[in-house]
Design brief:
Blueprint (H helix, E strand, L loop, with lengths): L1 H24 L4 E4 L6 E5 L3 E6 L5 E5 L9 H27 L10 H42 L7 E4 L1 H21 L4
Antiparallel strand pairs: 1-2, 1-5, 2-3, 3-4
Helix pairs in contact: 1-2, 1-4, 2-3, 3-4
InterPro entries: Claudin, Claudin16, Claudin_CS, PMP22/EMP/MP20/Claudin
Function: Claudins function as major constituents of the tight junction complexes that regulate the permeability of epithelia.
Main location: other
């Protein structure tokens, strides 16, 4: 039962870490359409902003000036939290691989392997919390930005939505958290 739980947690952690990595690298955290005719579709990400023309499907992307340039707080904080979450999830995966019962590394000492699984669960939990904070921080800031436009009557047909990258970050963080719970609480 323990080996099955370890492998299930590893599979979930691997998939969720890939989701986190994909969310960090992609460029559709916030979606807006600037007009009611939906001639263009704009995605803003952590690294660049892309506009897709809905009539002919042409997509153009603009990179942000520099990683060291002044950026809005939501971009800087989300970048930092997501990169840290990715690093912690990667470290947890490496530790978990070494701690799996089916791996012959330290096969003669199962107590150490179990401690490695617990440690991987704790590291994965920390990474998942950072990733969830980063994703939710960005989503809340998008909501507040839209609410400010509406409250100041500057709405003018601009429609903000959470992009698929934001949802992917939340899903990856949640999956890492579930894998962490499996490794730290359910593994006996």
């Amino acid at each position: 039962m323990s080996a099955t739980l370890q492998v299930a947690a590893f599979g979930l952690a691997l998939l969720s870490t890939l989701f986190l990595l994909l969310a960090t690298c992609t460029d559709c955290w916030m979606v807006n359409a600037d007009d009611s005719l939906e001639v263009s579709h704009k995605c803003r990400g952590l690294w660049r902003e892309c506009v897709t023309n809905m009539q002919d499907g042409v997509r153009t992307c603009d990179q942000y000036d520099s990683i060291l340039a002044d950026h809005p707080v939501k971009i800087v904080v989300t970048r930092t939290l997501m990169i840290t979450a990715n690093l912690l999830a990667g470290l947890a995966l490496a530790t978990l691989v070494l701690g799996l019962d089916c791996i012959t590394f330290l096969k003669e000492d199962p107590c150490v392997k179990l401690k490695m699984c617990y440690g991987a669960g704790v590291i994965l939990g920390a990474g998942s919390i950072l990733g969830l904070i980063g994703s939710v921080w960005y989503a809340v800031d998008v909501y507040v930005e839209r609410a400010m436009l509406v409250s100041h009557n500057i709405f003018l047909g601009v429609h903000y939505d959470f992009g698929w990258s934001c949802w992917l970050g939340m899903a990856g963080s949640t999956g890492c958290f579930v894998a962490s719970v499996l490794l730290t609480c359910c593994l006996y």
